[in-house]
Request: fold
Amino acid sequence: MRKWFVVFLAVVGTGGAATAGTVEELAQTCTACHGDSRQLPTDPAFPIIAGQQFYYLYVQLRDFASGLRQNEIMQGIVAGMDKATMQAVAQYWSEQPWPTTAFPGPTAEERERAERVIASGQCSACHLGGFEGNSRVPRLRNQQPGYLEKIMLDFKFKRRMNAPDMSALFTDVAEADITALAHYLAGL
Amino acid sequence: MRGKHVSGYRLAGGVAAVALVALTSGVAAQETGKTTLYGDLRVVTQDMLLRAADDGNNFLHPQHNYAQTRFYPNRQINTTNVHQLRPAWIFQTEVVDTMEVAPIVVDGVMYVTTAFNHVYALDAETGAQIWHYKHRMGPITTYCCGPNNRGVAVAGDRVYMGTLDAKLVALDAKTGKLVWEAEVGDPELGYSETMAPIVVEDKVIIGTNGGEYGIRGFVKAFSAADGKLLWTFYTISDGDRHLGTWRETDPMGRSLNRDIAAEKKRLAEMKAAGKDDFWQRLGGGVWQTPAYDPETRRLYFVVGNPSPDLDGSNRPGDNLYTDSLVSISVDTGEYVCHYQYIPHDVWDLDAVSPPILATVKDKDGKEVKGVLHGSKLPYVFVHRADDCSLIRWSEPMVPIENLWALPTPAGTRMLPGANGGVEWSAMAIHPGLHLAYAANLHQPMTYHVESTPYPGGKLWLGGAFKVIPTEEQWGNITAVDYDTGKIRWQVRTQQPMIGGLLATAGGLVFAGEGNGWFKAYDAATGAVLWQFQLGAGVNAPASSYTVKGKQYIVVGAGGNAQLDYKRGNDIVAFTLAD
Reply:
């Protein structure tokens, strides 16, 4: 695995912009878990990254590298990656279209719960009306429900520590509300 | 290029003065249009900017004039005929998202902006597009409360706009081509621009947002000619000045529940550890355009909350000049005076709505130059302009409960909620009636604190604000007599109000609502005289202007990100049916 990065770095380091081929090769290694524009991630708890906001992706890679966001798999993957590489691969993924999804969406009861939390937490002030995100704020619309649920629980129980205010927001959101939110956002 | 520009400036300057003398002398002046023999009125001279208050043809400043009264002087549309108001044209922008723009009109040409920094020049008579500028947004933006923009400043033959990626751009008013671009702040650290700048002579002046991200706030002046930085006033003072006087009460003398001993102890610890540089991340954004007093050459603006919003544990002292009215010199950016509403704020009940300069009665009933500010708190504050001191405050405009209860981890309910009172919405005044009109929110919230270290440019509220979903929310428009502080009239609205107002010499006040209604009220009584449904949230302040003898009212209907009102993309101009 490491070799990819060395080759890649050499290109970035000398020429400024890497050739499309090399970024694609690096991105190939992500597809195994994250899927791409045509296929969903292999595990329900893995996030879609194709079509995600550039700056959000980059910041997450940076935070995995610094240990601010903890995840064994991803920390292994970014180990040794430099800033330029992270930016290039984030750029690549942000330019891919979001895959077509058909998540079932919430039950009527879940919808009501989700809408209440969304109004109370003023989520759309940052994630925007359609939950498409912008720049450092991630897209949530049609994200994998399993991942959404896991990550909101990680915020709530202070396992994900790189966004203190998202943690604070979820501190007293009930677990059932989080499940409802995950289904609601996935099914938008 | 520059030489030509300067001579054009002079020529039109003299002309504008002539045209405006005619204007103030009666209705005939409404005929003054682009058919004038006197030259190119599209070049906005300093003279025009100074006399904007009496200019019924144009709407040259986001708040109509340097004093920011939002009082439009023509009365063709008035209380007796406003029921005949009909749409003249509708323009649809490319961006269906939150809209807070105050349309600017120069000699029949209108400039409007949208979310994500598009600018359109439109024919103000027909709504036809003249040009469209789309800012090349950098990949990094960090903003709060929606990708908003509140409009442009016009001067000379240029149009100026601040951007979400913290740039200031100068465009050619005729073509929309970029003339220069300057960096105002670093978006990676949380700086962004949503306010309309203000131009005074050779300077373009703009503040910054970022109080939710641990910035150090400022107001900066750039050279209008080339974008060179001329001066910076930091809203967070260095040295020990930001500590202030350790005031324990609000302006009315009620306890803020500060633990001054604990704050001083924390400060001593930080000093001993060499870590008392918290002022570099103490916030203090400036959300709205400053007012300008040409007689004293001073700017007046209000400064937003300290960072982190809800957690005061690592920012001892009064956190000056957060939550304050501040006056500085337009020439040098030097401090003149301030008044702080809430020292050491932990509720984000900050100062946002643009201040207004007006003649007011002081405590002895003597007329003095005053400054009005509609606050989240929820009062209209009346100050002396010379030393910023407080003369009076109005009756409260929305309910106050459990005031200054400290935020807790589980959440404390306190009214008003963190959006106010009056949010960024500009007030308008009617100088004849001595009334100030304010758009208010009643939005019950709980305040939660959770102390976290500075997250390096990420959102840093130090907790959370939560709207209480089971409680009723509403809004109102309140007319306050600024010479007495008494509420003259108040009209309840279905939803919390955000967007701002326009008052006119026709005895009208215009305001939009989140549910799509755009209404005209009787300025003296608050009676609803006209309403029109626009199909998306009307959460931007209206403007008015006259072309070929016809008065228009124009407003944006794009909804609002912060309060999640239905988004749209319409700019709608109204005029009287024939």
About this structure: The CA atoms of residues 64 and 70 of chain A lie 6 Å apart. The longest helix of chain A spans residues 20-34. Chain A has a mean pLDDT of 89. The domain at 3-94 of chain A is CATH 1.10.760.10 (Cytochrome Bc1 Complex; Chain D, domain 2).
